[in-house]
Design brief:
Layout lengths: L21 H9 L3 E3 L2 H10 L6 E3 L8 H6 L9 E2 L2 E2 L9 H19 L1 H6 L4 H9 L12
Helix pairs in contact: 4-6
């Protein structure tokens, strides 16, 4: 048995495209393919938020076998360069746990650099402490100013 991917079900706004959540946008940015009931409306949502992910149709009247075709369909990769920036290899790996950890580490580093007082107020696990220390922001009584 091969290991499979992850299926995310993302609720999108019906009326106002601005009503979409940040979490939904983050998920839509990280998936290799989006299957939508109404591709025209979904394309407008993706374009508005600068999301460049392949989009395909999937709805109640999709023909027999459409679900299997989606589940067994081609694998899409993200470009190695996005808007002139090199995309970190971890973001192209498909390893969602590693991507989540990388994003958390990046957020901690930005917060430590710009708002170190917020770090002191949060509960950090060992991985958080390690990421901050590796980035030059020691914790545990030592100053974090850079």
């Amino acid at each position: 048995m091969t290991s499979g991917g992850t299926l995310y079900v993302v609720a999108t706004p019906i009326g106002n495209l601005g009503d979409v959540t940040l979490r939904a946008l983050d998920t839509l940015r990280t998936v290799p393919l989006i299957a939508a009931e109404d591709t025209r409306l979904t394309r407008r949502l993706l374009d508005r938020h600068g999301i460049d992910v392949p989009l395909t149709s999937f709805h109640a009247k999709s023909g027999p076998g459409r679900m299997e075709a989606l589940l067994e369909g081609p694998v899409y990769t993200k470009p190695a360069n996005w808007r002139g920036r090199e995309v970190p290899e971890i973001l192209m790996s498909g390893n969602h746990a590693a991507i989540a950890r990388w994003r958390r580490d990046q957020a901690l580093r930005r917060t430590a650099a710009t708002r170190p007082e917020l770090i002191a107020r949060n509960t950090l696990d060992d991985a958080d402490r390690r990421a901050l220390t590796e980035a030059g922001f020691p914790i545990g009584g030592e100053p974090m100013a850079h």
